[in-house]
Write a structure and sequence with these properties.
Elements: H1 7-27, H2 35-46, H3 55-64, H4 69-93, H5 95-105, H6 109-119, H7 123-132, H8 137-146, H9 151-186, H10 188-205
Helix pairs in contact: 2-3, 2-4, 3-4, 3-9, 4-5, 4-8, 4-9, 6-8, 7-8, 7-9
Length: about 210
């Protein structure tokens, strides 16, 4: 029985094929004008509202042009930190207007409440952890403004965490570019589902950061 005659197999194959096409299309941007701006824009909006992490585009661009990996990481870091500042501004000055959009469409009330608990402990460590790990960074940027976390604390923790994360990705690609590209292309389906699992796991991890 082929994929077309098996509804279950076809349903599973379609999202994988879409992800594969998106990966191939994204890699094609590595040498096109505008790729750097696209990376910056995605990193910027992901820090407050966009659901897809910029790592996906950073990885694809770096694999397509390993010698520019650190440049892409710098652009991604700058966009993400600046986007975090926007998230802070939204939380600080416009939460009464934006709350109905962010909860529940961007994150849940339960997650937001958990971040508040973390900020009552050590806000710097909480933001640094979220900036470096799969824990949803956008929740922390917006919540930092809502709960009036020190703005320099947000900026410093974000700059350290985001830069460490993105430059680590760039370093691996820079050192092992051709080999990594081959592995990504060979095991792309597994990698895509692993990234999805990390994203979900990031939300769940908030429960264990007390």
């Amino acid at each position: 029985m082929d994929v077309a005659s098996n509804p279950t197999t076809g349903a599973l194959a379609r999202p994988r094929n879409v992800l594969r096409r998106l990966y191939d299309w994204t890699v094609g941007w590595a040498e096109r004008p505008g790729s750097t701006w696209a990376l910056f824009a995605i990193a910027f909006v992901e820090s407050s509202v966009f659901p897809v992490p910029p790592d996906v585009l950073l990885l694809a661009l770096s694999v397509g042009a390993p010698r520019r990996a650190f440049w892409f990481a710098a652009v991604c870091s700058a966009g993400s930190v600046l986007g975090g500042m926007l998230g802070y501004l939204i939380g600080y000055s416009a939460w009464h207007v934006a709350k109905g959009f962010f909860i529940p469409y961007v994150f849940s009330q339960a997650v937001f409440d958990q971040v508040q608990v973390l900020y009552q402990g050590n806000a710097f460590v909480a933001i640094l952890t979220a900036a470096f790990t799969p824990i949803p960074y956008k929740v922390f940027t917006v919540a930092a403004g809502v709960f009036h976390v020190s703005f320099p604390t947000l900026v410093l923790a974000s700059a350290l965490g985001r830069s460490a994360r993105f430059f680590a990705v760039a370093g691996v690609i820079y050192l092992f570019g051709p080999q990594v590209k081959g592995l990504i292309e060979k095991y792309f389906d597994w990698l895509a589902w692993a990234l999805l699992a990390l994203g979900v796991g990031g939300f769940l991890a908030l429960k264990f950061l007390r």
